[in-house]
Design a protein that fits this description.
The protein has seven helices and six strands; from the N terminus they run αββαββββααααα. The chain has about 200 residues and is mainly alpha-helical.
């Protein structure tokens, strides 16, 4: 049982983790609030896309001008990175012995990936980052090394294909795989993100 639950703090009504906010009187943790916002965005985006398509079809069939403006679909929510049950919002610097400059770089890259529709890659990278931050089985120096490597991969994921460094990407992918293998939570997160990154980079 977590320290937050022992101290009587509210827990998430969906997963039992420490809650950080209330939505419709239901306590939610950071991850579940993100899933809630993501589901709302998906419904809105789908409805807006259908409306826009219907409007275009009406114009094509009738020859009439657009009856209204096309609905702008906002970018999807950016997956959160959190530390000690709080959203990470620091701009660089250190918290304890963790170098959050790397974490901030990852956040910026997650936003860029989300804006370009690479939501699955962004989600998996965020989960990997959170697994590294939350584990108690790694020394801070090991965490910083993994975060630095993950920041490099996330930056390469946002770069144009001709600007990427394939040799370094393959080397870092292998290094993270070795460093993550001994700890189940990180190994599981890496098992989810590694094939997505390989596909994104076109690495077999």
């Amino acid at each position: 049982m977590s320290e937050e639950v022992k101290q009587g703090r509210p827990v998430c009504g969906q997963c039992g983790k420490p809650a950080v906010m209330m939505i419709d009187e239901i306590p939610l943790c950071i991850d579940c609030e993100y899933k809630f916002q993501q589901s709302r965005w998906m419904v809105f985006a789908q409805n807006a896309a259908m409306y826009n398509m219907a409007d275009r079809q009406m114009v094509a069939v009738t020859g009439m001008p657009h009856l209204s403006s096309q609905i702008d679909i906002p970018n999807a929510p950016v997956p959160p990175i959190h530390y000690n049950n709080q959203n990470v919002t620091v701009q660089g610097g250190t918290v304890g012995a963790i170098n959050f400059g790397n974490v901030n770089d990852i956040q910026v890259n997650l936003q860029a990936l989300t804006q370009h529709g690479e939501i699955g890659v962004a989600d998996a990278l965020a989960n990997m980052t959170n697994a590294i931050l939350e584990t108690h089985e790694l020394a801070e120096a090991q965490k910083n090394e993994l975060l630095e490597q993950l920041a490099f991969l996330s930056s390469q994921a946002t770069a144009q294909p001709q600007e990427r460094k394939p040799g370094m990407i393959k080397s870092v992918l292998g290094a993270i795989g070795e460093g993550a293998g001994a700890i189940k939570s990180i190994a599981d997160a890496w098992g989810a993100v590694a094939p997505l990154l390989q596909g994104h980079f076109g690495i077999g």
